[in-house]
Amino acid sequence: MVLKKEELTEEDVKVPIRKLVLSSKKPVKIRNMEDYADIFFSIENTVFYNWSEFDSVLNDQDVLNAYNQLLEDFDNQKENSLSSEISKSVKAFLLMRKKEGMKDYTYGEIASCVSYIIEIANNHKSPDGLGYLKWIRTFFEGNMPKNIDEIAKYMFENEI
Predict the structure, then answer these.
(1) Is 134 domain-assigned?
(2) pLDDT tens, N- to C-terminus, the chain (160 residues)
(3) Contact 31, 113 (CB under 8 A)
(4) Any long-range contacts for 139-144 (C-beta under 8 Å, 24+ apart)?
(5) What is the distance between the alpha carbons of residues 12 and 140, in angstroms, rounded to a whole number?
């Protein structure tokens, strides 16, 4: 996880998530990803960073395992694991929102975003086990397919 040292420390992000969100665990229906873009960004950017910056041997299943571990227990993750890094990233984002006086999310909203990302990851499978990781790389590099032909080409090259 990348933290701006002058703003947050590793200790800051060890706070339990329940102290950073409203208590409702009620799931929400994600109708528009833009409504939760900052949550999605903090999660997927952490995955992309860990995969690309560290010449990682991560594959889609590793990422799915991390997401599922977060759904089971957002706070108690093995130190330096992908799930721990994602948890710290989301908490850093939530702490910054609090500092800026922005609306608090509920735990249910955070969990619903993780569940939604699991669905996305499951939709981007590939024989090499990197379909989802390639998809988020395409997103962060600004190379998203723009029309049906580009989508078909992308799928043929990366997911079939």
Answers:
(1) no
(2) 544 535 788 888 889 999 999 999 999 999 999 999 999 999 999 999 999 987 678 999 999 999 999 999 999 999 999 999 999 999 999 999 998 999 999 999 999 999 999 999 999 999 999 999 999 999 999 999 999 999 999 999 998 8
(3) no
(4) 139/44, 140/44, 140/45, 140/48
(5) 27
Range of the domain at 112: 34-123
Q: How far is CA 20 from CA 16, 24, 35, 105, 108, in A?
A: 7, 12, 18, 8, 12
pTM metric for this prediction: 0.90
Q: Which residue type sits at 93?
A: F
- Asked whether residue 144 is assigned to any structural domain, the reply reads no
CA 4 from chain center: how many Å?
A: 19
Helix (H/G/I), strand (E/B), else coil: 22: strand
- Domain membership of residue 14 (yes or no) is no
The answer to whether residue 88 sits within a structural domain is: yes
